[in-house]
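testing teh design pipeline on a random one, pls ignore if ur not involved
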């Protein structure tokens, strides 16, 4: 029985097939159904850097490492908008600083493995022993949230009336100056119910501290707490955790496939920055 003969494919078709096979662009960090426009960017803005001994890398970024978008309408960062770190001071003494609620906080450490950043109020670090906090700690929770490892210290400044039994909580640190008027000032640990109705004061401020640091100090020597020990706890800082979700556009179009997200200063997701210098920008 004669073998069947398949029709021959014209020779000119083979180069076309090869061309199509090698020129289909691969997907870089964008599993979304509607692909983003492909262009290029300066990959140096995503490089890991150091400031004051602290490693700064995605999703954090240096304030000096921003670039203009392809349409030149705004700047973008390689990282989450609120996680901008400025490197302050003159070399070789540089200090990494992040702003929360308009106030400066010094970065003491970033633990990337468990998404934790340790911060201290920059105002208290410059004082030798007896710092006075001037503001509550506030921040937007789009990317950051309070860690369970924190507790709060509550300060009452410039009080003009006291009731009995509060002397052990009065700050008696040599060199302490209340930023909110004269009169005695007090500091209360979380296990003490602050007597707000028994104190008439100019200002009340509550700030986070690391719970384990506070417990260690109180357990070892409670008597030194109001004479400067509270300052040691403040200088150890507090912990925040940065958040990400696998349901947002940044994760689905970038991070899921090892890309890095570009954000505007107004927190808008702009596109994906890929490791090969290519970028995929969101359509307007």
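output:
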């Amino acid at each position: 029985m004669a073998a069947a003969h398949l029709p021959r494919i014209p020779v000119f078709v083979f180069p076309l097939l090869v061309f199509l096979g090698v020129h289909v662009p691969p997907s870089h960090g964008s599993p979304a159904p509607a692909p983003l426009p492909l262009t290029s960017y300066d990959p140096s803005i995503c490089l890991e850097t150091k400031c004051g001994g602290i490693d700064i890398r995605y999703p954090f970024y240096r304030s000096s490492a921003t670039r203009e978008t392809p349409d030149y309408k705004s700047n973008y960062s390689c990282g989450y908008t609120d996680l901008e770190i400025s490197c302050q001071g003159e070399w070789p003494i540089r200090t990494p600083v992040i702003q929360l609620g308009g106030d400066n906080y010094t970065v003491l450490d970033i633990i990337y493995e468990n998404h934790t950043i340790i911060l201290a109020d920059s105002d208290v670090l410059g004082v030798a022993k007896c710092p006075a906090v001037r503001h509550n700690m506030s921040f937007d929770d789009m990317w950051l949230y309070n860690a369970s490892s924190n507790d709060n210290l509550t300060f009452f400044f410039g009080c003009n009336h006291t009731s009995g039994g509060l002397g052990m909580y009065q700050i008696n640190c040599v060199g302490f100056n209340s930023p909110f008027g004269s009169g005695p000032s007090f500091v209360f640990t979380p296990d003490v119910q602050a007597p707000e109705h028994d104190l008439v004061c100019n200002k009340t401020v509550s700030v986070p501290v690391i719970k384990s640091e506070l417990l260690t100090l109180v357990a070892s020597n409670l008597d030194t707490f109001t004479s400067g020990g509270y300052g040691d706890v403040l200088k150890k800082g507090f912990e925040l955790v940065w958040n990400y979700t696998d349901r947002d556009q940044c994760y689905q179009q970038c991070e899921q496939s090892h890309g890095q997200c570009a954000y505007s200063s107004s927190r808008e997701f702009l596109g994906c920055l890929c490791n090969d210098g290519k970028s995929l920008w969101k359509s307007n």
